[in-house]
From TrEMBL:
Database matches in Pfam families: Cytochrom_c3_2
Species for this entry: Shewanella halifaxensis (strain HAW-EB4)
Claim: Heme is one of the keywords in the record: yes
Domain Tetrahaem cytochrome: 38-118
Keyword NAD: no
Cellular compartments annotated: Periplasm
Ranges that cross the membrane: none
Gene Ontology CC annotations of this record: periplasmic space
InterPro entries listed in its UniProt record: Multihaem_cyt_sf, Tetrahaem_cytochrome
Cofactor(s), by name: heme c
Protein known as: Tetraheme cytochrome c
Signal peptide feature range: 1-20
Keywords: Electron transport, Heme, Iron, Metal-binding, Periplasm, Signal, Transport
GO molecular-function terms, A-Z: metal ion binding
Length: 126
């Protein structure tokens, strides 16, 4: 009976994904990989044992402030309705929407606004 329980526990432990087995986007792979060849989860998640969604300040440390990002993705003023609105400076949320509402590292990113709208944003890294 003890052997059976031990075997069951081993199977359960092996089915738990290790942190470095988590999928990471190609465009972050090189930046997040340490000299030891392993992904440094602490770069985004900090040193806490329980990993949480990174704060916007973590994204800003590499990508710039939300204002900088909004400026980079600014649409021409005379574009009219033929151009999709700036995803980083929306009419509803301004620049206050957390990065992680759209940009997800360990699963496919999605356009948060598409809960109500149908925007494509073809340049979005998914």
């Amino acid at each position: 009976m003890l052997r059976v329980l031990t075997a069951i526990c081993m199977v359960m432990l092996m089915s738990i994904p290790a942190a470095n087995a988590m999928k990471i986007k190609d465009h972050h792979q090189e930046i997040m990989t340490g000299d030891n060849g392993k992904v440094e989860c602490s770069a985004c998640h900090g040193d806490a044992k329980r990993k949480t969604i990174p704060d916007a300040s973590v994204c800003e440390s590499c990508h710039g402030s939300v204002e900088d990002i909004a400026e980079l993705t600014k649409r021409p003023a005379d574009a009219g309705h033929d151009v999709e609105p700036n995803p980083h400076d929306s009419l509803h949320y301004g620049t206050d929407l957390p990065c992680t509402y759209c940009h997800m590292e360990h699963k496919e990113s999605k356009v948060y606004c598409n809960q109500c709208h149908e925007f494509e944003y073809p340049d979005m890294k998914r």
